[in-house]
Amino acid sequence: PERFLKENQFYNSNVVGKYCEKRDPHLACVAYERGQCDRELINVCNENSLFKSEARYLVRRRDPELWAEVLNESNPFKRQLIDQVVQTALSETQDPEDISVTVKAFMTADLPNELIELLEKIVLDNSVFSDHRNLQNLLILTAIKADRTRVMEYINRLDNYDAPDIANIAINNELYEEAFAIFKKFDVNTSAIQVLIDHVNNLDRAYEFAERCNEPAVWSQLAKAQLKQGLVKEAIDSFIKADDPSAYIDVVETAHKTGSWEDLVRYLQMSRKKARESYIESELIYAYARTNRLADLEEFISGPNHADIQKIGDRCFDDEMYEPAKLLYNNVSNFARLAITLVHLKEFQGAVDSARKANSTRTWKEVCFACVDSQEFRLAQMCGLHIVVHADELEDLINYYQDRGYFEELINLLEAALGLERAHMGMFTELAILYSKYKPAKMREHLELFWSRVNIPKVLRAAEQAHLWAELVFLYDKYEEYDNAVIAMMTHPSEAWREGHFKDIITKVANIELYYKAIQFYLDYKPLLLNDVLLVLTPRMDHTRSVSFFTKVNHLQLVKPYLRSVQSLNNKAINEALNNLLIEEEDYQGLRTSIDAFDNFDNIALAQKLEKHELIEFRRIAAYLYKGNNRWKQSVELCKKDRLFKDAMEYAAESKNADVAEELLSWFLEK
Fold it and tell me: Repeats (CHCR): which ranges (predicted)?
């Protein structure tokens, strides 16, 4: 009857099926299936537990709506039906469309666990569809969402799924081991190690994996990760295995921070073989310097290279690595920097030689000062000779020596420099100042030789501060400040006064007042030489004032030679002073001579003074003076008083005055 029901087209499936339900539910199913009586078939299957038949019908029917109905939560027979679909219906079908609709129905009903069962049956049980890519993809993806514990098993058992896409979905769902397994299985090793690095965060496993693969790209990725973690040695080992110089900037920066210079040398040696970059070669030189591999460094820079040697030399110098800096500066012939480097290495002779080649004042200064600090004064002097010829550098040099107390060496340096072709005023001046401070005995000789080449005002101040009065006077004289020279001599006579010099200078002073100060000075210190100086002063001196001065201080007697020498001027004050001196000395002959020779004095006053003199000769001179002033009567009276008859008669005769003559005759007659 089953065959009849299937093949006979001429009956109403609904009616026949209804009839068969009570007698043979299986036949009812056959009738209903023929007429696609979906609801009736499902009901009869549910009532009679014919879930296998129901499952086969649903798979063959391919009706999404019908599937949605039976897979609904409200269906109490859902579980039994699903079991039969998985166990029987799907394994029997060979039609991919059946499979597709069934799977979609399960997905639509949101039954992931049941879907996994379904797919396992199709894919894992060696059915025709075991190698179906989409089904394998779907099985793994469903497991990722619904049952993560199964994902690894599926990944390992299945071979025909979209590995990269599945792996990325696994990563997004934090299934890192599963993603790693996929990449590893399909030999996408760079992605596999990236999972270990970025997501598993296990560099040890990443290293083991790289060892196993031994692919350059894998080693590169591992190296970059190790570098980020600061594992410089390990990173460099990995880069070298990868033969990858691409990350050289990052490697160099990290090695600098961690001080991994030996490892950096290895890396840069590898990098240089691959890329002849200036940066790589420069950093390799610096790394050689850091590891003190000077032989390698020297060999490297001797050959052809693209390194910025000057820049690396500066870096070594700044980092106080002077030995490498020396090699580098020598290589680029930067003698200025080489000189300073040699100074730091205490190779002073070499520093001086390099400074000579550099021939820069700044270099000479730095080398010179370093030699001074190390008390290498011979070399310091060699440098200093190139500095002192620059007037604007001289002060710095002198201060440097002086501040450290090296006066002797500084003086030696300047003495040696005086003979240079470019010797200038500043050198002679500063040496004079140094002599004034530290070697006063040599200053005079220096000034006598070079006074015309020194800055006299500057040296004057120094001499004054050092109390070198003789040198001060010498300079004032040369500077034609004669007034100051004279004042200095008179203020400090024991050191500064020299008779000939004083007499020479005093005549040149502008201020005549200094003459009178000089007279007082000689009175105080050199009274016996007073007349000499007065004779020198005569041409410009006010003699009346000088006589008044000597009279006041009661020293006329002392200056008698002076008075005699200037009497020829017939100055009244001089005449009177000298006449008074002659009276005091009772030199009547001298007085008579003076009166006869020089008439500019108060005759009557002198006559009146002399007529009372105790010596007759002076009274005679009084009579003589009266006569000279036509006072005949007084003159004759004086002669009569002293019984100077001859004089009386001569004067009376000279007077040609009858009265005077008669009076004299009468007097004689009386007597």
Answer: 1-83, 90-235, 239-380, 385-531, 534-671
Give the other-Cβ count within 10 Å of 87's Cβ.
14
Of the pLDDT bands very low, low, confident and very high (cuts 50, 70, 90), residue 12 is: very low
CA–CA distance, 651 with 628 (Å, rounded to integer): 10
Q: pLDDT higher for 490 or 210?
A: 490
- Our CA angle for 491, 493, 494, nearest 5°, is 135
| Whole-structure pTM value | 0.60
DSSP alpha helix (H) spans, 229-308: 232-242, 248-258, 261-274, 278-290, 294-302
Inform me whether the pLDDT recorded for 658 exceeds 90. Answer: no
Instruction: Tell me what pLDDT residue 269 has.
Output: 79
Q: 447 and 459 in contact (C-beta within 8 Å)?
A: yes
Contact 517, 533 (CB under 8 A): no
Q: d(Cα 237, Cα 242) in Å, to the nearest integer?
A: 9
Report pLDDT for 440.
Answer: 92
CA dihedral sign, ordered 75, 81, 86, 91: negative
Q: Identify which of 430, 508, 437, 439 has the alpha carbon closest to the alpha carbon of residue 476.
A: 508
What value does the mean pLDDT take over residues 473-485? Answer: 88
The answer to whether the beta carbons of residues 144 and 169 sit under 8 Å apart is yes
Is the pLDDT at 398 greater than 90, yes or no?
yes
650, two tokens: 């001569």
Structure tokens at 508: 């040149």
